Amino acid sequence: xxxxxxxxxxxxxxxxxxxxxxxxKFKDRLGDKGVRRFKHTSLAILLVAIMVSxxxxxxxxxxxxxVNNLSNFIFGLIRAVGMxxxxxxVVQIGxxxxxxxxxxRANGFLxxxxxxxxxxxxxxxxMITGG
Length: 131
Hints:
This protein is mainly α and 131 residues long. The protein is built from 5 helices and no strands.
């Protein structure tokens, strides 16, 4: 994490200004120990989500069942990414309300809308195709 932050501060990795400010605020508020706890907690949540994720692609006699299992697995991964984006957007909206930054608030709401679309992609596609 320190290497990443130093690369961002030195300009090796270019981030938008609002992300740099939020990263520095996050680092200042939590400190090194808090950042480590955040990383460990995030990793634990990710591992639990992977272990709990329902359908695993299993070999079956019917090739159609294998394709359906694979489809369900991929849409489960897409749903997980959508949930992560939703969580990030809620944090972004909260920070923008606290800092009274209208452009960051607009980005937060756009990210929220994108997260909802990604989270419910399977249902949206089923509704469009009628399946």
